[in-house]
Request: fold
Amino acid sequence: MTTAPQKRKYAEDYINYGFACIQNSGILNPQCVVCNETLSADSMKLSKLQRHLETRHREHSSKDPSFFKRMEIVSDQDLIQQALINNSRSPVLKLHTLYL
Ligand SMILES: [Zn+2]
Reply:
């Protein structure tokens, strides 16, 4: 018996719409890698993520997923730097990072 890593599949789909999957206090939330806005857990539907991308970031809506992956890496580095500066652990765990 194996449990399929479905969450990983979801996280990979999110990045196609410019979203990373973050865990905040045990709750999974989609976070936009363009504006860093975190949507509520019940916005975790691809149609809602797509809507955010098209209404807020229309200029990016036709971008290749690799564009968002680069942005996500950049924001990860920002988080690491902030954590180092603050000398404290961020309560926000990036699931995407855990899978690497
Ligand atoms: Zn956004």
Summary: The beta strands are 19-24, 27-32, 92-94. The longest helix spans residues 65-86. The two ends are 24 Å apart (CA to CA). Residues 32, 34-35, 37, 52, 56-57 surround zinc ion (CB under 6 Å).
